[in-house]
């Protein structure tokens, strides 16, 4: 049997469930943001290695797995999407984020 994982939500659900981890997918909505603007809008990326930071910025999207809900929520709350009105950084780089629990259930999304 073949199973099509047709969108970020389905892929994130499958990753979290199979790894039994908390997870977040992210996608940069702003065309070609500077690295500085990207890091300001996704402060959690600064906790990654230099190579991982470059990968996250260059590809503009991906999936991140976390051991705890606390780690996930910290990263999610540091990710600035279009719905973070009033933040001066929102004009520079907007990042969509979607979160999921270890059972494969989607939780939060910023837009």
Can you describe what's shown?
With about 110 residues, the protein is α+β, with helices and mostly antiparallel strands. It has one domain (about 10-110). The chain contains 4 helices and 4 strands, in the order H-E-H-H-E-H-E-E. It has helices spanning about 10-20, 35-40, 50-60, 70-75; strands at about 20-30, 60-65, 95-100, 105-110. The protein has a 4-stranded antiparallel β-sheet with strand order 2-1-3-4. The radius of gyration is 14 Å and the shape is globular.
Write the layout of secondary structure elements.
Layout: H1 8-19, E1 22-28, H2 35-41, H3 50-59, E2 61-66, H4 69-77, E3 95-100, E4 106-110
Antiparallel strand pairs: 1-2, 1-3, 3-4
Order of helices and strands: HEHHEHEE
Classify the secondary structure makeup into a structural class.
Answer: alpha+beta
State the strand order across the main sheet.
2-1-3-4
The chain-level mean pLDDT equals 88
Distance between the termini: 34 Å
**Whole-angstrom Rg:** 14 Å
List keywords for this structure.
111 residues; alpha+beta; four-stranded antiparallel sheet; 4 helices; 22% strand; globular
Brief summary of the model shown:
The protein starts with 7 loop residues before the first helix and ends with a strand. Strand 3 and strand 4 (106-110) form a beta hairpin. The chain has four helices and four strands.
């Amino acid at each position: 049997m073949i199973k099509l994982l047709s969108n970020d939500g389905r892929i994130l659900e499958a990753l979290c469930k199979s790894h039994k981890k908390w997870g977040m997918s992210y996608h940069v909505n702003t065309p070609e943001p500077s690295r500085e603007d990207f890091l300001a809008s996704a402060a959690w990326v600064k906790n990654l290695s230099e190579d991982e930071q470059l990968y996250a910025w260059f590809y503009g999207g991906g999936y991140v797995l976390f051991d705890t809900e606390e780690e996930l929520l910290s990263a999610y709350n540091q990710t600035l999407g279009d719905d973070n009105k009033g933040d001066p950084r929102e004009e520079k780089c907007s990042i969509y984020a979607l979160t999921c629990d270890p059972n494969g259930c989607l939780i939060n999304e910023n837009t």
